[in-house]
Amino acid sequence: MTIRILIADDEALLRMAFSTVLEAQPDMAPVGEAADGLQAVRLARELRPDVVLMDVRMPGTDGIEATRQVVGISPQSRVLILTTFDLDEYAFAGLNAGASGFLLKNTRPEELLTAIRSVAAGDAVLSPRITRRLLENLRPHIPGGGDAARDADRDDRLSRLSAREREVLVQVGRGLSNAEIAAALYLAEATVKSHLGRILQKLELRDRIQVVIFAYESRLVHPA
Predict the structure, then answer these.
(1) 222: in domain
(2) Is 114 found in the same domain as 13?
(3) If I label 202, which of 20, 105, 125, 169 is the partner at 20 to 30 A Cα–Cα?
(4) Lowest mean pLDDT among 14-28, 120-134, 153-167, 202-216
(5) By C-alpha distance, which of 148, 140, 14 is closest to 88?
(6) Which residues are within 8 A (CB) of 216 and not within 5 positions of it... i.e. 6 or more apart?
(7) Is residue 13 exposed (0-12), middle (13-18) or buried (19+ Cβ within 10 Å)?
């Protein structure tokens, strides 16, 4: 399957550089370029890309608001936010808007390609270290977080999960990939993916990022 990618960045040279890297991959195809947030939203509506590489700071509509709109009009599109700025400043806003991951613009090309493939497959691009740091620093801003966080036993949705699904939920909350969860729980990776699909359905969550936040809100996982 070819991953169709929309590139949104206000710097033409960066758009060209990203496009050149992507075109060299047999499983990727850049399908459009946007110079600002509004254009990114319009092209996402028209092209329905699999992945959107989204700059944070663009004129007019910024990358955070554009992400929120893209996810709303094209739910199957995964947004990977690119930033030159400190992660914590934008991380929770991006998560809340529906982003599936974050990368710095100076990341190595091979890391960019791995990240694109990961989000296209439904994974989140957040390492365990970044997940812990992000949610520890931003926990007071998470609805229902901080001292007012719900106890796990008080969230009715958790009762819908099997014991194994709850185990998988905890591992997702810690930022592990499907492959890492499979190794930790001695399961096939395909089995982990099936469990995650049922978790999303039973908890009425949209994607893996929301599962991470839910795990912290319900106190199944705690910042290290």
Answers:
(1) no
(2) yes
(3) 125
(4) 120-134
(5) 140
(6) 135, 139, 142, 145, 149, 173, 222, 223
(7) exposed
Strand order from edge to edge, sheet including 28-34: 28-34, 3-8, 51-55, 78-83, 101-104
Question: Could you report the per-residue pLDDT of 3-43, keeping only the tens digit for each?
Answer: 999 999 999 999 999 999 999 999 999 999 999 999 999 99
Q: What angle do CA 142, 102, 78 make, to 5 degrees?
A: 90
Structure tokens at 213: 């936040």
* DSSP string for 107-159: S-HHHHHHHHHHHHTT--B--HHHHHHHHHHHGGGSTT-GGGPPPGGG-GGGG
151 vs 17, higher pLDDT: 17
Please name the residues in contact with 172: beta carbons below 8 A apart, sequence gap of 6 or more.
181, 196, 199, 208, 211, 212, 215
Backbone angles phi, psi at 7, to 5 degrees: -105, 120
Residues 111 and 157 in one domain: no
pTM of the model: 0.71
User: Which residue segment(s) compose the domain that 139 sits in?
Assistant: 132-217
CA 175 – CA 65 distance, rounded (Å):
25
What mean pLDDT comes out for the span 161-169? 94
